[in-house]
Amino acid sequence: MALWVVLLSLAIGAVAGAGVTLLVVSSLRQATSAVTMASALLPRGVTELVSLIEIPLAIVDGAGDIVAMSPSTGELGLTKNRRFASEEVRKIVERVRSTGRPASKELELLRGPLGGTTINLSLRADRFGANFVLVVMADKTEMRRLEEVRRDFVANISHELKTPIGAVTLLAEALQQAADDPDTVRHFAERLSDEAARLSTLTREIIDLSRLQAEEGLEPFELLDMNDVVAAAVDHNQVTARAKGLEIVFGGDEGATVRGDSNRLVMAISNLITNAITYSVPPGRIGIGITRSGEFVEVAVTDNGIGMTPEETERVFERFYRTDQARSRSTGGTGLGLSIVKHIVNHHGGDIKVWSRPNRGSTFTLRFPYIKPESEKEKAA
Ligand SMILES: Nc1ncnc2c1ncn2[C@@H]1O[C@H](COP(=O)(O)OP(=O)(O)OP(=O)(O)O)[C@@H](O)[C@H]1O
Ligand SMILES: [Mg+2]
Q1: Domain that holds residue 273
Q2: How far apart are CA 184 and CA 173, in angstroms?
Q3: Mean pLDDT, to the nearest integer, of 110-135?
Q4: Per-residue pLDDT tens for 341-367?
Q5: Per the domain annotation, does 239 fall within a domain?
Q6: Is 284 close to ligand 1, i.e. is its CB under 6 Å away?
């Protein structure tokens, strides 16, 4: 092949290659300019600023696409392919853009791609620059739930008091009418004392709970050994456990020291043991283990009783909550015991966990900060 043919083909190759390269470069330029175009109107640094903000916040462009959002926005589960999944939210944004007037709204929306749970959202949208809308959101789900619990509390107190008071009134009338029949009188008198006991437990628990809240922080904490606290709580429950044919065993690490109010901690653990007794079927065993691990002292109260479903375990710390099973067994409980436990534990800087399976049993685990006795002495010196 002549040299010129080789040179020509090389030249053609080079030109073609350069052409392709030019094409690629120019299309890349176009793509980049499209991206810059979309965010060109956003003031410089806004995207970076938004990524540093903790509250849920998003900036939406004229096409309804989210061009910038804070990290917590994604956690709410309300966006899909960088757009708001809810049509209602998209409409609000569109209205704000077209009218220029800000909007605030409380919404109840489905969360996540499968929409399994709902979220109570407080939303505020306002125009941002000429073509964008700024959406600021707040997750109010937990707040709404607590408001509901508080409202229920008052309603439940009246309901719970009404039942035994009504029963006492009826039984007293029945007693009057059966005055000549000693057997019937004995029967009604027994029931009357049951109802009186129920009323007295309920009143005591309501008083305990409100006193706990009112006195918070007034009493000085002292250095306590968790073994002594547990021993006292077991002591309170021993008679009832034996009467029901249940055995209580306890033990664990020595030197499990915490700072706290002895009476309250005994009350908390005693409530857990009372539950373990109430919701166990004899012959059963209740175990209480004390462990010191690293920074914490743990107390686990375990029973092999009736247990609970996962849905029930999620709600047990709510005031007046009782599982259906517990209701139908008419154990006479009021559903305040565990709220009191949780309150005391939180007040001591601790936390509470529960594991339970129907017909297998339950374990309630309390965790408190471990306090070295030496560090306390140093403080006192
Ligand atoms: N160890 C347990 N095993 C199974 N269910 C339990 C256990 N502990 C608590 N529960 C369930 O949780 C509910 C709430 O317990 P909580 O102690 O708050 O109230 P209660 O025992 O019903 O009444 P009280 O206020 O008299 O303690 C109980 O009614 C019961 O359904
Ligand atoms: Mg209880």
Answers
A1: 218-381
A2: 12
A3: 85
A4: 998 898 898 999 999 999 999 999 999
A5: yes
A6: no
